[in-house]
Fold FecR protein domain-containing protein.
Amino acid sequence: MKKLSVLLGLWVLVLANLAFANAVATSVSGTVQVATGAAAPRLLRQGDTVRQGDTVSTGAGSSAVLKFEDGQVAALTANSRLTVATFEYNAQAGTGSVLLSLLNGGMRAITGLIGRNSPSRVTYRAGTATIGIRGTDVTIVTSFGNVVVSVTEGLISFSFGGQTISVPAGQGVNAKTDGTFQQGAASQIAQQLQATPEGQQMLNLLNGVQGLEGVIGEAATSPVNTTRSATPNPSSPTGSTGGGNASTR
C-alpha cells in the first residue's frame, strides 16, 4: 500500500510538471488578443503568458512572438490565428508534447527541447495539412484551406490529401484545396505563388513572417521567462515592432 502511495505521488508530480507548462509573449506589436476556450478574448501584451487551450489572434499590421517553456519559438504575422492545442512539458526530463494549430495567417516555428529530444511529439497543423518535424525551423502559411510551407532548417513530414512527403531544408510545398500540391525549392514556390491573386496573398503572408526575423532571433536567444500571469498588465510595454508588411525578398 505504501509503495502504491509513493507511485501515485510521483505520477501526480509528473502531471503537475506538465500542467504548468506555458509560453510567454516576448514581442507584441499592434493589436493582439488571446482567448481561453470559449471565454471572451483579451489583449495580449509583452510578458503575458499563453497556455494550452489558448488561441492567439493578430490584427492588421500586428504580430506576436511566443517563446515556450522548452525554448520553442512561434511567431505570428498580421491577420493570423493560432491555437495552442497541446503543450505539455516535463522540464526535468526535457520531454513533452506539442500541437500547434494555425487556423489562418502565417507562422514561423523553431522547435525547442521537446523537438530535439522527442521530435515525434511535436506536430503543427494548418488547414487540412499535418506537419511533423525533425529538429526544424519552418514557416507555415494558410488561407482558405490553401497551405504553403518553407523549411529553413531540419526536415518536415508534410501530410496532405492522403499523401505524406518529406521536405528538407531549402525546399517548400504549395498545397491547394483541390488536393494538389507542388514541391520544390523555396524560391520556386515563391515564383509560383506570384501567378495568381490567391498565391500572391500567400506570398504576402510569407513575406510578413520574414519581416519578423529580428524579433524571432531575439526570442530564440533570450532566456525563457514564464513567471508572468496570463492576465494582461495595462502598464506593460507593447513590445518590439514587426508587422506583416515586409517587402518580397
